[in-house]
Amino acid sequence: MNLTILFYPEERDYTDLFQGKTVIVLDILRATTSICTAMAHGAKEIIPVRKLEEALAHKGSNVIIAGEDNGLKPDSFDLGNSPSEYRNDRVKDKTIVFRTRNGTQAIVLSSPADHLLIGAFVNSKACAQKAASFHKDIVIFCSGTRGDFSLEDSAAAGYLALILSSEYNVKLDDAGLLLANTFQHIQQNSFSLLKQSRSSRRLKDIDKWDDVSDCLQIDTYPIVPIVHQGIISLDS
Fold first, then answer.
1. Which family does it belong to (predicted)?
2. Which domain holds residue 156?
3. How far is CA 208 from the centre of its chain?
4. CATH number, domain at 107?
5. What is the DSSP letter of 146?
6. CA-based nearest residue to 87, from 206, 220, 207
7. Residue 195 gets which letter from DSSP?
8. Are the CB atoms for 22 and 138 separated by under 8 Å?
9. How many domains is the chain built from?
10. Is the pTM here over 0.90, yes or no?
């Protein structure tokens, strides 16, 4: 198996690149962390959408409308994009329609993948194990920040690359080699570098600093959210 890392999405058709492969989408701050948290606390399923209007089209039905725009919960949404909002019984057995500026964009763009997994620091070991179990080439798709490189997504990609190469004999591309070998240094310094990233600083500016610590927890949840026909549910 071979691993490829993509640092951020482009507005394009990914069919040729993703077909026949396993794709792991990362949006550490905060979408994929919140998705993993919601699923670990009993959410039935999550429907990722790209536009605010798509999310609001579900208003009035028996679902939770969640996510963010410009980092904050829209007034018309039920929940925002902080992992702490999903650590309670409110999401248990619920369908969540989820829209964020970066993460859900990458998830929807990844639909051509044979297997589409939701990854984060909080479930990296479980996610790597599941990805390797399909015995297909793997793509780690970082959601980035507004169409640009994201430090925390790339660090998480490095952690996944380290696990995949050391435990499952996955061959890394050059980006994977670099990131796997720098991750341990980043971790040894208590993720202080990641707390200086553009997204981290933005969350501090909008009074969401606690989200950063939540999203940098390692292997909290032994679960793997999987996308099938546009719906995220737990691997069974």
1. Belongs to the ComB family.
2. 2-234
3. 18
4. 3.90.1560.10
5. S
6. 220
7. G
8. yes
9. 1
10. yes
